[in-house]
Design goal:
Helix 2 (17-46) packs antiparallel against helix 3 and helix 9 packs antiparallel against helix 11 (310-319). The protein has helices spanning 2-13, 17-46, 53-78, 80-93, 109-174, 178-206, 209-214, 216-230, 248-269, 298-303, 310-319; strands spanning 234-240, 273-281, 284-291, 323-328, 334-341. The protein is of the alpha+beta class and 344 residues long. The protein is rod-shaped. Among the domains are: 2-78, no CATH class; 211-344, Histidine kinase-like ATPase, C-terminal domain (Heat Shock Protein 90, 2-Layer Sandwich), CATH 3.30.565.10. It has a five-stranded mixed sheet with strand order 1-2-3-5-4. Strand 4 (323-328) and strand 5 (334-341) form a beta hairpin.
């Protein structure tokens, strides 16, 4: 019995604020009317010749006092969640994103929903902040890895070519035979052309001018030709529906995804063929890259992406409203599908 009464009392106290005030003032009016009627009847019958001025004053004072006390108690109880919520807002304003507002058993349901929404927003902000920190860290790591790669290629390839050129120049200085001098000049010419080609290749990988000048289709065709010339993989490109150029951001995102995928194919897949397809259908662009290489456990890699391979691809596509799908099984090759709205 006591438990039922307690639950009933909790249910009554948790009704919305509007109804609390309405019920409280209705009870004040009803009690005042009953008490006033009884007191008036008694006073008139007892003091029939009295003007009843003191009775009116009593009614007015008692009504005001009772109304103030009851409304103060009801509003203080009902607005307690707002006080806790204000404390939480002050904490967030001071930079504390870990603050949370608790709910009470007697809180108004509307305030409970407001507090829960506030806590959920804080949790989302904290999660997004953590993701931004991770993304910033990965961006920094990517920059450092790219710098190390460029420095390594400049040192191992262009640096060696320039060192060899310096040696040949010294030999040329000491050479007294005209035929031998011409031979050294020819070798210097070849080394110079080789160094220029290596520097051009590095520059194109960093920022492909063909992508800016001619668009994504030509840039992918160039990338496939580069792969065919430098690796034991035969790459092909098919395009469909690409009548107009895409936005600069979307072209760059799709190109970087293709670049990363083709680089992985050349280095790790042991594939013999790679098919690149670029299609635009119903306002959506789809880039698919299929190889017949060794494959990998796609579910395990996607669950715990490492480095800036698949994770970097996903983040690039997310910036243009796109998505990435990877299908791969050990020994059965890999299918990579990047899709994004053409109006991104």
């Amino acid at each position: 019995m006591a438990e039922s009464l307690r639950r009933m009392l909790v249910a009554v106290l948790r009704v919305p604020l509007l109804y609390k005030i309405l019920v409280a003032n209705s009870l004040i009016v009803a009690l005042g009317a009953v008490a006033g009627t009884l007191l008036t009847v008694w006073h008139v019958s007892t003091y029939p010749d009295d003007p009843h001025i003191e009775l009116i004053a009593l009614f007015a004072g008692a009504g005001l006092g009772l109304s103030f006390v009851v409304n103060f108690a009801v509003l203080r109880l009902a607005l307690t969640p707002l006080t806790r919520l204000q404390s939480g807002v002050d904490g967030v304003r001071n930079g504390n994103l870990t603050t949370r507002v608790r709910t009470g058993r007697l809180d108004d349901e509307q305030f409970v929903r407001l507090i829960e929404t506030f806590n959920q927003m804080l949790a989302t902000i904290a999660e997004n902040t953590q993701e931004l920190r991770k993304l910033s860290q990965r961006i920094i790591e990517a920059q450092e890895e790219e710098r190390q790669r460029v420095a390594r290629e400049l040192h191992d390839q262009s640096g060696q070519s320039l060192t060899t050129m310096l040696v040949r120049l010294r030999l040329l200085e000491r050479s007294e035979d005209a035929a031998q001098a011409r031979l050294h000049v020819q070798e210097l010419r070849k080394l110079t052309a080789q160094a220029l080609e290596e520097i051009r290749r590095i520059a194109l990988e960093l920022r492909p001018k063909i992508l800016e000048d001619l668009g994504l289709c030509e840039a992918l065709a160039w990338r496939a030709d580069e792969l065919n010339a430098s690796a034991a993989v035969r790459a092909s490109l098919q395009t469909s529906g690409m009548d107009h150029r895409l936005s600069r951001e979307l072209e760059l995102a799709l190109y970087r995804v293709a670049q990363e995928a083709l680089t992985n194919i050349a280095r790790h897949s042991q594939a013999k063929t790679a098919q690149v397809s670029l299609r635009q259908v119903a306002g959506r662009v789809t880039l698919s890259i299929v190889d017949d290489g060794a494959g990998f456990d796609a579910e395990a890699v996607l669950a715990h992406p490492s480095g800036l391979g698949l994770a970097g691809m996903r983040e690039r596509l997310a910036l243009v409203g796109g998505s990435l799908q990877v299908q791969s099984t050990p020994g059965q090759g890999t299918v990579l599908i990047a899709s994004a709205p053409a109006t991104a």
